[in-house]
Each structure stands twice: as C-alpha cells, then as structure tokens.
Design a protein that fits this description.
Layout (H helix, E strand, L loop, with lengths): L4 E8 L3 H9 L1 H8 L1 E3 L8 E6 L8 E10 L3 E6 L16 E10 L2 E9 L9 H28 L2
Antiparallel strand pairs: 1-7, 2-3, 3-4, 4-5, 5-6, 6-7
Helix pairs in contact: 1-2, 2-3
C-alpha cells in the first residue's frame, strides 16, 4: 500500500457535464465538500473559504487551482489536514488533488487522486494521510449524493 498517494474511484449516475459542474462551480463544490468559498475557481489562483463541517468551522480552507480541463480534469494543490491554526504550513510541500472524469454507460466514472504525502514532514505525515484517506471516502459519498439530489429536483 502506498503512503504517498490516496486514490478513490466512484461510478456516478450523472452525465459528465453534471459532475463537472459539481466539481468546478465553487458554490456546488462548497455545498458537497463543506466549505463556503469566497469566489470562483481560477487556474493559478488561490481559492479560499470557511469550512462548514461541524467542529472545523474555525478552519480556513485554501487551495491553489492548478488545472481545469473541461469535463476531463480538475486539480488543485493544498496542505492536507492543515487544522492547527497556529501552525505555518507554507513551509511544507503541498499535495496535488486530481479529479478525473470519464464517461461510462449511464454516467461518469470519477477518479480522485491525492499525491505527494511523502513530502509532508514525517511528524505529521501518518495523521494527514489517515485523515485524508477517511475524508476522501466521505467526500466521494457526498458528491454522489449531491449529483443524485440534483436529478430529483423539479
């Protein structure tokens, strides 16, 4: 088992354009991810917002948008499990999050990869990996529910 990367895959019962919108529209992303973002995602720019997940509301979520290849790839870098408001994570190498979309019969295969954990200081690497492994499992369920709920609306 790799300790440098997390990979999750889910087949969603929604077309690629719907999943793309859920990933890249900052309001939709915030709704399922649990963050109130300040503005749209722009490659090369910082995206920032307040975490809305209970118990983590004191955290400011921050990522640098890397690539937005329409209906194919959305990626950003961030400092994983950066929850200590007194710590300076800017000295650490960020991890890379990639969402890849693939059209499959009846929907979209979404593959999430977070890589670069080996660049995190050894003192916090195991906890960051463990928390993000669990977090991404939940986030894949969250986006699945989000795109399914949109289909049920009139």
């Amino acid at each position: 088992m790799s300790t440098d990367r997390i990979e999750k895959r889910i087949d969603l019962k929604a077309p690629v354009p719907r999943v793309w919108r859920a990933l890249t529209d900052h309001r939709e992303f915030g709704a399922w991810f649990g963050v109130n973002l300040e503005g749209p995602f722009v490659p090369g720019k910082v995206a920032r917002g307040r975490v809305t997940h209970p118990g983590y509301e004191h955290i400011t979520w921050e990522a640098v948008i890397q690539r937005m290849e329409p209906e194919r790839l959305f990626s950003f870098t961030w400092h994983p499990f950066a929850v200590d408001t007194k710590a300076d994570y800017t000295k650490e190498a960020p991890t890379l999050i990639e969402f890849r979309l693939e059209s499959i019969g009846g929907g979209t295969r979404l593959t999430l990869t977070e890589s670069g954990f080996d660049g995190i200081p050894s003192g916090r690497r195991p906890e960051a990996f463990r928390m993000n492994e669990q977090g991404w499992t939940q986030q894949m369920k969250n986006i699945e529910s989000h795109v399914a709920a949109a289909k049920r609306r009139p």
